[in-house]
Specification:
The protein is α+β, with helices and mostly antiparallel strands and 345 residues long. The chain contains 8 helices and 16 strands. The protein folds into 2 domains: 103 residues, no CATH class; 206 residues, no CATH class.
Length: 345
Amino acid sequence: MHERNDSGQRSRGFSDSELTALERGAMVPLTFSGTVIARFEHAVNIVVTGESLIMALVTRREAMSARTLLLPALPHELRTGTTVSAWDGRARVGGHPWWRSAELTAVSGGEIDFAGAPWYYGHLPAAPVTPRRSAQMGESSPVPPPPALIAAMFEMVREHGRDGGLLGLLDRRRGNVFSTFAARLLSVEDKRRATTEYEKLVGLGGGLTPAGDDFLTGMLAAEEIGGAALIDRDAVSRRLTQTESTTVVGATMLRLALAGMFPAYLTAVGAQLTAMPAAAPGAERSGGGATVTRGAVTRATVTRGFRSTVLRALEYGHSSGTDALVGLLWGLHRARVAPFGPVPV
Protein backbone atom coordinates (compact mmCIF):
# COMPACT_ATOMS: atom_id res chain seq x y z
CA MET A 1 0.00 0.00 0.00
CA HIS A 2 2.86 2.34 0.80
CA GLU A 3 6.12 2.52 -1.06
CA ARG A 4 9.48 2.91 0.65
CA ASN A 5 12.34 5.13 -0.47
CA ASP A 6 16.02 4.16 -0.52
CA SER A 7 16.43 4.92 3.17
CA GLY A 8 13.69 2.45 4.06
CA GLN A 9 11.19 5.11 5.20
CA ARG A 10 7.69 5.25 3.82
CA SER A 11 7.55 7.70 0.93
CA ARG A 12 3.99 8.90 1.45
CA GLY A 13 1.22 8.89 4.00
CA PHE A 14 3.55 9.52 6.94
CA SER A 15 5.15 12.57 8.47
CA ASP A 16 8.87 13.09 8.80
CA SER A 17 8.71 12.14 12.50
CA GLU A 18 7.81 8.49 11.92
CA LEU A 19 9.69 5.90 13.95
CA THR A 20 9.99 2.21 13.07
CA ALA A 21 9.97 -0.18 16.03
CA LEU A 22 13.04 -2.39 16.38
CA GLU A 23 11.16 -5.07 18.30
CA ARG A 24 7.56 -5.71 19.31
CA GLY A 25 6.32 -7.50 22.41
CA ALA A 26 4.13 -10.46 21.48
CA MET A 27 1.25 -9.17 23.64
CA VAL A 28 1.21 -5.66 22.16
CA PRO A 29 -2.11 -5.36 20.27
CA LEU A 30 -1.99 -4.14 16.69
CA THR A 31 -4.98 -1.91 17.35
CA PHE A 32 -5.44 -0.06 20.62
CA SER A 33 -5.93 3.30 22.24
CA GLY A 34 -4.47 4.54 25.49
CA THR A 35 -3.10 7.40 27.54
CA VAL A 36 0.46 8.15 28.65
CA ILE A 37 0.68 7.93 32.45
CA ALA A 38 4.43 8.44 32.86
CA ARG A 39 7.42 9.47 30.78
CA PHE A 40 11.05 8.85 31.67
CA GLU A 41 14.32 9.35 29.86
CA HIS A 42 14.26 5.93 28.21
CA ALA A 43 10.67 4.75 28.64
CA VAL A 44 7.03 5.77 28.37
CA ASN A 45 4.16 3.92 30.08
CA ILE A 46 0.74 3.90 28.46
CA VAL A 47 -2.48 2.64 30.06
CA VAL A 48 -4.48 0.81 27.39
CA THR A 49 -8.15 1.74 27.35
CA GLY A 50 -10.42 -0.99 28.70
CA GLU A 51 -7.61 -3.28 29.90
CA SER A 52 -6.24 -1.78 33.15
CA LEU A 53 -2.85 -2.90 31.90
CA ILE A 54 0.02 -0.95 30.44
CA MET A 55 2.13 -1.16 27.38
CA ALA A 56 5.45 0.63 27.21
CA LEU A 57 7.71 2.31 24.68
CA VAL A 58 11.39 1.88 25.51
CA THR A 59 14.79 2.60 23.99
CA ARG A 60 16.81 0.03 25.97
CA ARG A 61 16.45 -3.65 25.17
CA GLU A 62 16.88 -4.84 28.76
CA ALA A 63 13.53 -3.17 29.44
CA MET A 64 11.73 -5.22 26.76
CA SER A 65 8.71 -7.27 27.75
CA ALA A 66 5.81 -8.89 25.96
CA ARG A 67 3.90 -5.59 26.32
CA THR A 68 6.65 -3.30 25.04
CA LEU A 69 7.79 -1.68 21.81
CA LEU A 70 11.54 -1.11 21.40
CA LEU A 71 12.18 2.15 19.54
CA PRO A 72 15.35 3.90 18.33
CA ALA A 73 14.10 7.05 20.12
CA LEU A 74 11.01 8.30 21.91
CA PRO A 75 8.71 10.73 20.09
CA HIS A 76 9.00 14.25 21.51
CA GLU A 77 5.22 14.53 21.55
CA LEU A 78 4.84 11.88 24.26
CA ARG A 79 3.92 13.60 27.52
CA THR A 80 1.77 12.60 30.48
CA GLY A 81 -1.87 12.71 29.40
CA THR A 82 -1.09 12.36 25.69
CA THR A 83 -3.32 9.94 23.80
CA VAL A 84 -1.84 7.17 21.67
CA SER A 85 -3.97 5.42 19.06
CA ALA A 86 -2.94 2.50 16.87
CA TRP A 87 -4.57 0.73 14.00
CA ASP A 88 -3.14 -2.28 12.18
CA GLY A 89 0.33 -1.87 13.68
CA ARG A 90 0.71 1.87 13.11
CA ALA A 91 0.43 4.25 16.04
CA ARG A 92 -0.30 7.96 16.19
CA VAL A 93 0.81 10.02 19.17
CA GLY A 94 -1.71 12.68 20.20
CA GLY A 95 -4.89 13.85 18.52
CA HIS A 96 -7.27 11.50 16.77
CA PRO A 97 -6.64 8.38 14.69
CA TRP A 98 -4.96 9.47 11.51
CA TRP A 99 -6.30 7.13 8.87
CA ARG A 100 -9.03 7.89 6.40
CA SER A 101 -10.59 5.17 4.29
CA ALA A 102 -7.80 3.11 2.77
CA GLU A 103 -5.37 6.01 2.60
CA LEU A 104 -3.30 7.16 5.55
CA THR A 105 -3.27 10.91 6.03
CA ALA A 106 0.07 12.62 6.62
CA VAL A 107 -0.05 14.68 9.80
CA SER A 108 2.42 16.36 12.09
CA GLY A 109 3.31 14.65 15.35
CA GLY A 110 4.81 11.35 16.40
CA GLU A 111 4.04 8.25 14.41
CA ILE A 112 5.25 4.70 15.08
CA ASP A 113 5.23 1.78 12.66
CA PHE A 114 5.49 -1.53 14.53
CA ALA A 115 3.58 -3.94 12.31
CA GLY A 116 6.67 -5.59 10.85
CA ALA A 117 8.94 -5.53 13.90
CA PRO A 118 10.45 -8.83 15.15
CA TRP A 119 8.51 -10.29 18.06
CA TYR A 120 9.71 -10.58 21.64
CA TYR A 121 8.00 -13.25 23.75
CA GLY A 122 10.03 -13.19 26.95
CA HIS A 123 10.06 -16.95 27.40
CA LEU A 124 12.92 -18.43 29.38
CA PRO A 125 14.99 -20.94 27.40
CA ALA A 126 14.00 -24.52 28.19
CA ALA A 127 16.35 -26.10 30.69
CA PRO A 128 18.03 -29.32 29.54
CA VAL A 129 16.40 -32.44 31.00
CA THR A 130 17.75 -35.79 32.09
CA PRO A 131 15.90 -39.05 32.79
CA ARG A 132 15.37 -39.83 36.46
CA ARG A 133 17.08 -42.99 37.64
CA SER A 134 14.16 -44.34 39.60
CA ALA A 135 10.60 -43.38 38.92
CA GLN A 136 8.56 -44.18 35.90
CA MET A 137 9.97 -44.82 32.49
CA GLY A 138 10.33 -41.69 30.44
CA GLU A 139 10.10 -39.34 33.39
CA SER A 140 12.60 -36.51 33.28
CA SER A 141 13.62 -33.45 35.25
CA PRO A 142 15.51 -30.23 34.45
CA VAL A 143 19.28 -30.28 34.77
CA PRO A 144 20.16 -27.75 37.48
CA PRO A 145 22.62 -24.95 36.74
CA PRO A 146 26.15 -25.52 38.08
CA PRO A 147 26.24 -24.55 41.77
CA ALA A 148 29.20 -22.26 41.06
CA LEU A 149 27.00 -20.09 38.82
CA ILE A 150 24.36 -19.73 41.51
CA ALA A 151 26.98 -19.04 44.17
CA ALA A 152 28.61 -16.38 41.99
CA MET A 153 25.24 -14.72 41.37
CA PHE A 154 24.45 -14.85 45.09
CA GLU A 155 27.70 -13.04 45.89
CA MET A 156 27.20 -10.44 43.15
CA VAL A 157 23.65 -9.65 44.26
CA ARG A 158 24.76 -9.18 47.87
CA GLU A 159 27.75 -7.07 46.87
CA HIS A 160 26.29 -4.99 44.02
CA GLY A 161 22.53 -5.14 44.65
CA ARG A 162 20.64 -1.90 45.21
CA ASP A 163 18.98 -1.03 48.49
CA GLY A 164 15.36 0.00 48.84
CA GLY A 165 13.65 -3.31 48.21
CA LEU A 166 14.10 -6.88 49.40
CA LEU A 167 17.89 -7.19 49.35
CA GLY A 168 17.67 -7.65 53.12
CA LEU A 169 16.41 -11.19 52.50
CA LEU A 170 19.95 -12.10 51.45
CA ASP A 171 21.85 -9.68 53.66
CA ARG A 172 20.17 -8.57 56.88
CA ARG A 173 22.50 -5.60 57.13
CA ARG A 174 20.74 -4.17 54.05
CA GLY A 175 17.25 -4.70 55.46
CA ASN A 176 14.31 -2.31 55.72
CA VAL A 177 10.66 -2.43 56.68
CA PHE A 178 9.74 -4.23 53.45
CA SER A 179 12.35 -6.98 53.75
CA THR A 180 11.49 -7.40 57.44
CA PHE A 181 7.83 -8.02 56.55
CA ALA A 182 8.82 -10.39 53.74
CA ALA A 183 11.22 -12.28 56.01
CA ARG A 184 8.51 -12.85 58.58
CA LEU A 185 6.08 -14.05 55.92
CA LEU A 186 8.59 -16.38 54.28
CA SER A 187 9.82 -17.87 57.55
CA VAL A 188 6.39 -19.07 58.64
CA GLU A 189 6.45 -22.84 58.98
CA ASP A 190 2.91 -24.16 58.81
CA LYS A 191 2.74 -27.83 57.91
CA ARG A 192 -0.95 -27.49 57.05
CA ARG A 193 -0.09 -25.23 54.10
CA ALA A 194 1.54 -26.66 51.00
CA THR A 195 3.02 -23.32 50.05
CA THR A 196 3.87 -20.01 51.67
CA GLU A 197 1.29 -17.26 51.13
CA TYR A 198 3.42 -15.49 48.55
CA GLU A 199 0.42 -13.54 47.27
CA LYS A 200 0.78 -11.30 50.33
CA LEU A 201 3.93 -9.90 48.70
CA VAL A 202 1.93 -8.44 45.80
CA GLY A 203 2.26 -4.65 45.92
CA LEU A 204 4.84 -4.67 48.75
CA GLY A 205 7.12 -1.63 48.47
CA GLY A 206 7.11 1.61 46.53
CA GLY A 207 7.83 2.61 42.96
CA LEU A 208 6.27 1.74 39.61
CA THR A 209 6.94 -1.96 40.17
CA PRO A 210 6.84 -2.66 43.91
CA ALA A 211 9.64 -4.82 45.32
CA GLY A 212 7.25 -7.66 46.10
CA ASP A 213 6.12 -7.82 42.47
CA ASP A 214 9.71 -7.94 41.23
CA PHE A 215 10.54 -10.65 43.79
CA LEU A 216 7.57 -12.77 42.71
CA THR A 217 8.57 -12.35 39.06
CA GLY A 218 11.99 -13.77 39.95
CA MET A 219 10.33 -16.60 41.86
CA LEU A 220 8.20 -17.47 38.85
CA ALA A 221 11.36 -17.52 36.72
CA ALA A 222 12.88 -19.95 39.26
CA GLU A 223 9.87 -22.21 38.78
CA GLU A 224 10.55 -22.28 35.05
CA ILE A 225 14.23 -23.07 35.54
CA GLY A 226 13.91 -25.46 38.49
CA GLY A 227 10.81 -27.29 37.35
CA ALA A 228 9.20 -27.02 40.80
CA ALA A 229 5.88 -25.50 41.82
CA LEU A 230 6.61 -22.92 44.52
CA ILE A 231 3.82 -20.35 44.29
CA ASP A 232 0.05 -20.69 44.39
CA ARG A 233 -0.50 -18.98 41.07
CA ASP A 234 -4.26 -18.88 41.46
CA ALA A 235 -3.87 -17.00 44.76
CA VAL A 236 -1.57 -14.45 43.13
CA SER A 237 -4.01 -14.02 40.24
CA ARG A 238 -6.89 -13.47 42.64
CA ARG A 239 -4.83 -10.91 44.54
CA LEU A 240 -4.21 -9.02 41.31
CA THR A 241 -7.96 -8.68 40.75
CA GLN A 242 -8.35 -6.78 44.02
CA THR A 243 -8.59 -3.01 43.68
CA GLU A 244 -5.29 -1.23 44.30
CA SER A 245 -3.48 -4.43 45.25
CA THR A 246 -0.49 -3.05 43.32
CA THR A 247 0.40 -0.57 40.59
CA VAL A 248 -0.81 -1.04 37.04
CA VAL A 249 2.82 -1.52 35.98
CA GLY A 250 3.42 -4.16 38.63
CA ALA A 251 0.18 -5.95 37.78
CA THR A 252 1.12 -6.05 34.09
CA MET A 253 4.56 -7.49 34.86
CA LEU A 254 3.13 -10.16 37.18
CA ARG A 255 0.38 -11.19 34.76
CA LEU A 256 2.99 -11.68 32.04
CA ALA A 257 5.23 -13.67 34.41
CA LEU A 258 2.30 -15.90 35.39
CA ALA A 259 1.92 -16.59 31.66
CA GLY A 260 5.63 -17.47 31.36
CA MET A 261 6.80 -14.18 29.83
CA PHE A 262 9.56 -12.21 31.54
CA PRO A 263 11.50 -8.93 31.12
CA ALA A 264 14.56 -9.10 28.88
CA TYR A 265 17.06 -8.44 31.69
CA LEU A 266 15.73 -11.53 33.48
CA THR A 267 15.57 -13.76 30.41
CA ALA A 268 19.22 -12.87 29.74
CA VAL A 269 20.20 -14.21 33.17
CA GLY A 270 17.99 -17.26 32.70
CA ALA A 271 19.60 -17.98 29.34
CA GLN A 272 23.02 -18.06 30.96
CA LEU A 273 21.84 -20.33 33.78
CA THR A 274 20.19 -22.85 31.46
CA ALA A 275 22.91 -22.80 28.81
CA MET A 276 25.74 -24.05 31.00
CA PRO A 277 24.34 -27.53 31.73
CA ALA A 278 23.50 -28.06 28.06
CA ALA A 279 27.08 -29.01 27.22
CA ALA A 280 28.08 -32.64 27.45
CA PRO A 281 30.60 -33.60 30.16
CA GLY A 282 34.01 -32.46 29.13
CA ALA A 283 32.75 -30.12 26.43
CA GLU A 284 34.14 -26.61 26.48
CA ARG A 285 32.17 -23.40 26.39
CA SER A 286 33.61 -19.96 25.96
CA GLY A 287 32.13 -16.66 27.02
CA GLY A 288 33.57 -13.22 27.54
CA GLY A 289 37.10 -14.51 26.93
CA ALA A 290 36.93 -17.32 29.51
CA THR A 291 36.53 -21.05 28.86
CA VAL A 292 34.35 -23.26 31.04
CA THR A 293 34.42 -27.04 31.11
CA ARG A 294 31.15 -28.80 31.91
CA GLY A 295 31.45 -30.70 35.17
CA ALA A 296 34.31 -28.49 36.35
CA VAL A 297 32.61 -25.09 36.63
CA THR A 298 34.03 -23.33 39.66
CA ARG A 299 33.72 -19.79 40.96
CA ALA A 300 37.10 -19.07 39.40
CA THR A 301 35.96 -20.20 35.94
CA VAL A 302 32.54 -18.51 35.82
CA THR A 303 32.59 -16.50 32.61
CA ARG A 304 32.90 -12.75 32.42
CA GLY A 305 29.84 -12.86 30.16
CA PHE A 306 27.75 -14.32 32.96
CA ARG A 307 29.04 -11.77 35.45
CA SER A 308 28.31 -8.85 33.15
CA THR A 309 24.80 -10.16 32.46
CA VAL A 310 24.04 -10.34 36.18
CA LEU A 311 25.53 -6.90 36.83
CA ARG A 312 23.44 -5.37 34.03
CA ALA A 313 20.32 -6.93 35.53
CA LEU A 314 21.17 -5.42 38.92
CA GLU A 315 21.30 -1.97 37.32
CA TYR A 316 17.74 -2.21 36.01
CA GLY A 317 15.33 0.25 37.61
CA HIS A 318 15.79 1.66 41.09
CA SER A 319 15.92 -1.77 42.72
CA SER A 320 13.76 -3.84 40.35
CA GLY A 321 16.61 -5.89 38.93
CA THR A 322 17.97 -6.56 42.40
CA ASP A 323 14.59 -7.65 43.77
CA ALA A 324 13.93 -9.93 40.78
CA LEU A 325 17.30 -11.65 41.21
CA VAL A 326 16.69 -12.00 44.95
CA GLY A 327 13.43 -13.75 44.03
CA LEU A 328 15.21 -15.92 41.48
CA LEU A 329 17.85 -16.98 44.02
CA TRP A 330 15.19 -17.54 46.67
CA GLY A 331 13.16 -19.72 44.32
CA LEU A 332 16.15 -21.79 43.20
CA HIS A 333 17.04 -22.37 46.84
CA ARG A 334 13.49 -23.36 47.77
CA ALA A 335 13.34 -25.69 44.77
CA ARG A 336 16.55 -27.29 46.04
CA VAL A 337 18.21 -26.46 42.75
CA ALA A 338 20.84 -24.34 44.50
CA PRO A 339 21.83 -25.65 47.92
CA PHE A 340 24.89 -23.37 47.82
CA GLY A 341 24.42 -22.02 51.29
CA PRO A 342 21.84 -20.90 53.79
CA VAL A 343 19.25 -18.32 52.86
CA PRO A 344 18.96 -16.09 55.96
CA VAL A 345 15.31 -16.68 56.86
